[in-house]
Amino acid sequence: MSTAPSLFHKAIVLVALPFLFEAITVSFLLFLLNETEQDIAKEQQAKKILVQAYVLTTCINQACKWKIISLGRSVPLGSYDVKIAEALGPMPQAFVDLKIAAKDDKKWLSDIQLAEDQAKKVVRLMDVTRHAEAEGAFGIKHLKLMALLKGELTILEEQQDRLVSDARAVEEKTAASIGQHRANLKLLLCSFLAVGALLALALATYFHRDTMSRLLILLANARQFRDEKPLHAPLTGDDEIGVLDKAFHEMAGAVTESAARERAIIKNAQEVICSLDNNLCFTRISPACLTVWGYVPEDLVGESLLTIVPKDMHESTESAITRMKKSREEVAFETKVRKQSGGFIDMLWSVNWSESDRTLFCVCHDITDRKRVEQLKKDLLEMVSHDLRSPIMSVNVSMTLLLRNMVGQFDQNVRLEIERAEHNTERLIFMINDLLDVEKMASGKLLINKSWANVDELIEEASIVLKGTGDQKQIKIQAANSKLMVFGDAPRIVQVVVNLCANSIKFSPAGSTITIDARKKDEEIEFSITDQGRGIEPEFKEKIFGRFEQNKGDGAPKVGSSGLGLYICKNLVEAHGGTIGVDSELGKGSRFWFRIPTPTPEEAGTGGDRVEEPLSW
Questions:
Q1: What pTM does this model have?
Q2: pLDDT band per the 50, 70, 90 thresholds, residue 74
Q3: From residue 571, how far is each of 442, 547, 579, 595 by CA, in Å?
Q4: Helices 213-226 and 240-268, packing angle to 10 deg
Q5: CB of 338 within 8 A of CB of 309?
Q6: DSSP label at 495?
Q7: In the prediction, which pLDDT does 194 show?
Q8: For a surface tag, which of 108, 128, 186, 598 has the fewest beta carbons within 10 Å of its beta carbon?
């Protein structure tokens, strides 16, 4: 596999090359700018020297003029001295300014120094000729002095002309150089602009060829995958794009394989799996519809769901789907479906709404058998309630009458058999009542009628119910006074207390005591039933309130029970918004407790008001 540069390295190239080009451009521009500034400085220097050279020439010319005038005696001699001095006065400062303008240029400084020395010599000769003239010596000596002065003036003029010509030459040269720099700058800018454009084009071509084209292949693969078409061949190279393309191919392969498995599952699923559009028309449907409903999938695609649902269930079906669309949560509802053969079957629909696809995804379960079982269970419970409980209660009443000698006297053996029969019928009645209560809880038909009740009266009522059972096992039931009020369903609270005490009686030894107590704990009323039995194993405490759970640990007494008593207690307490639990240590007895919350004034209303709440799980 070829090794392609990574995106990081490509980014470095894209950033570094333009930066390097810009650095070179700026370097050349700075070089030209520096050269131009030096030429401008030389030009300014030449101009200053020209100005000061002009000042020197003016001073010498003025001094010479007054010298010539003095020879003609047109002015007094004292006036001559003053005029000469005034003309030569600016000359020393002019030489100082010339030296400053020349700065470190040794040639110019040398020429200026020569001119200054020559100027001083000329001034001295003027002074000598002035003194000679003052003495009236206008002969050959004076002529020689004037000739010498003229020669020295000529030398000074030549030196001044050399300074001026050099300065003008520098000025012209720098002006030409500045013009050349401007031309070079324009040429440089145009060149760099052209090179920059070519570099940008080259980088764009490189990036497109090596990166964009590969990214476009990735994009094309995504579209191919979306349209369920074969992907392009994998990209070569181990850069990030190559790795991403490899991962995309692997992901596409995994998704394709998963989709194939999903299609196989849908094809072989026993449940009907389908999708509906926003108008409840079938768009796709699994082959199971032929087995379950008798329809070929192609016959239902494009048809409305309501065409196979009974008319009396159209409104409820549409309402359930509308509610699901608004809540955006999965909704399950039941409806009947008309089979191809003409009959109806019960179906449970689990429906999800996809906002992006504007599609309903449905899984339909055939619950005809479950409905049949539920009806059988209902019929069984009705049979138990009417055809079994009533005769057993009648038998129990008859046994009670016999034990009370209402129909005559019996010997001890017969009486023991009657007592045993009475106990068994009572146990059957309790088991039947437990089954019926559980069914009411499951169907939500068990109502909790809340009102204010006296706690002591409820405990006393439970004690009376339990007295016979306790006396049979020689167990004392002791109730404590609390002087509290509780807001709840009084008969159901009594039922909870009775069930918990009955459970304690089953597992308590003869001669022991069971204590029923109540107290206020925080904002709740806590009922507790404390026994002196063997206690409960730690591993059983967590599941003791489950359905059909019984303590089968080593040493636990074998007692007949439905295993529903504590389960019913838990559900009744939780229906009041309370909690239930047990504190127990093996060998030291158990303490069952449940807590009923104290309601707010808004919940409780005024004393005596009743509040009905259905028991829901």
A1: 0.43
A2: very low
A3: 10, 11, 9, 13
A4: 0
A5: yes
A6: H
A7: 86
A8: 186
